[in-house]
Design brief:
By secondary structure, this protein is α/β, with parallel strands linked by helices. It is 32% helix and 30% strand. It has 2 domains: 3-225 and 298-316, Rossmann fold, CATH 3.40.50; 229-293, YebC, transcriptional regulation domain (Alpha-Beta Plaits), CATH 3.30.70.980. The protein is built from 10 helices and 15 strands. Helix 2 packs across helix 3 and helix 2 packs parallel to helix 4 (142-154).
Length: 326
């Protein structure tokens, strides 16, 4: 797939306002997001997520390294013409209606007036604001304002979306609808870089993620790979008894009965097949063999609580997101 967004060795150092102490917000970040991919940028406050986005938008300049959008350096304003951006905590003038807001954003993005007449109703319907099209924004709830912000980021049909907490303040139904909308955009080839503290949303939406800690990517990869617990499996069969557990242990596996199943840990795939064959030879009818996974939250906490980024972490099944650090 074509890389829409790429960064290599991206670093940024700030000086604090009073002590003039140097703060390393980014420290050699490598990042790639492909067309049609939804990519999650995770990390605690101060990890470098917002600094990364500001560099991509040309709002601040890296101390070293490079970043490109659509093959153009981010220092070139033309690189941002196909970008839609939703910042965290955005605000719209309260005296504008939703329709007027999208009209202004569309015209600023170069969308022709004739195209906007068709585009605005379409977007309002996609974010469930059709009935509020001509209501002043000051009457909107936080969730409605968030959905209007997403519509404004989409008004010029961008090929890259940079989204900071897009589901903040949105109810569960609205969050699912936004997830569906983002997947629809990805299906048409839009690249999406998603920054969120709602790890359950990231887990349900993203193809790949990067976990940042102290300006470094301590892990990058597909969520399924990051959350896999090695070769640990949930094994269910009949009969399920201590003799079966003993059989697995005699064959060199870790095994224990847990709530009606056996937690089975093999050395590798070949060992796993040997264990299953041994169970079948004993007459066990295998009804389930499912890889055990940690939650993304478990993985995230482990990574950001570990030692220095240079000592732990790395890339998992794939290539590799603040002005003032957050």
């Amino acid at each position: 797939m074509t890389a829409v967004l790429s960064a290599e060795g991206l670093a940024k150092t700030f000086r604090t306002p009073f002590s003039r102490r140097q703060v390393r917000a980014l420290d050699g970040l490598d990042l790639q997001v492909a067309a049609g991919e939804v990519f999650g940028l995770l990390g605690p406050n101060g990890a470098g997520k917002t600094t990364t986005v500001k560099i991509l938008l040309g709002l601040t300049h890296p101390s070293s390294g490079r970043a490109e959008l659509f093959g153009l350096p981010v220092s070139d304003p033309a690189s941002r013409r196909r970008v839609g951006y939703l910042p965290e905590g955005h605000r719209f003038p309260g005296y504008l209606t939703a329709r007027q807001t999208l009209s202004i954003f569309g015209r600023m993005s170069g969308v022709a007036e004739a195209d906007l007449k068709a585009r605005i109703p379409e977007l309002l319907a996609r974010v469930r604001l059709t009935d509020w099209a001509d209501v002043k924004v000051k009457r909107f709830s936080k969730g409605m304002t968030q959905r209007l912000g997403l519509a404004s980021a989409l008004v010029h049909r961008p090929d890259l979306l940079l989204l900071d907490e897009p589901t903040d303040g949105v109810d569960p139904v609205g969050r699912r609808e936004i997830r569906d909308l983002l997947r629809e955009e990805a299906a048409r080839g839009t690249a999406v870089l998603l920054n969120s503290h709602l790890l359950s949303e990231i887990e349900a939406t993203c193809d790949r993620v990067a976990v940042l800690r102290k300006g470094k990517a301590v892990a990058t990869g597909r969520i399924a790979d990051l959350t896999a617990q090695g070769f640990a499996y949930r094994f269910v069969g009949a009969p399920m008894d201590e003799a079966l557990v003993g059989l697995f242990r005699d064959a060199g596996a870790a095994a224990e009965r847990v709530n009606g199943h056996v937690k089975l840990t093999a050395r590798d795939v070949e060992h796993l097949n040997t264990l299953v064959d041994a169970a079948r030879a004993r007459g066990v009818l295998v009804t389930e063999l499912t890889p055990l996974r940690s939650t993304l939250e478990d993985v995230f906490v482990d990574l950001v609580s570990a030692g220095d980024p240079g000592e732990a972490g790395g890339t998992v099944h794939g290539s590799q997101g603040e002005g003032r650090p957050r």
